[in-house]
Amino acid sequence: MEPNPSADPVKLPVVQEIILTNRIGSISMEISRRLGIDPVKALEMFYESRTCADLHDRSTGLYLYGDLYIADEFMSERFSDL
Asked: Residue 27 contacts by C-beta under 8 Å, 6 or more apart in sequence?
């Protein structure tokens, strides 16, 4: 089936995945900056978090919030466990 040329390409699943991947990189860099850790470590920590799971779950609506807000959510999750 040919894609509808009048359809919004931003709504294509592959484009949505690219956007989410970019956002996760941005969020991880913010976490890295806040914690003073290696960006790869921050990315690993974020991927293991409930916040990341919520970001991937569209029913939570977290994807609608900005990257800094999501970084705040991660920090709250991370340090509420202490």
From this structure: 46, 67, 70, 71, 74
What CA–CA distance (Å, rounded) separates 24 from 3?
28
Q: SS3 for the chain, per residue?
A: CCCCCCCCHHHCHHHHHHHHHHHHHHHHHHHHHHHCCCHHHHHHHHHCCHHHHHHHCHHHCHHHCCHHHHHHHHHHHHHHCC
Closest CA to 20 of 31, 45, 28: 28
Q: Rounded distance, CA 70 to CA 68, Å? A: 5
Q: Is the pLDDT of residue 42 over 80?
A: yes
Q: What pTM does this model have?
A: 0.84
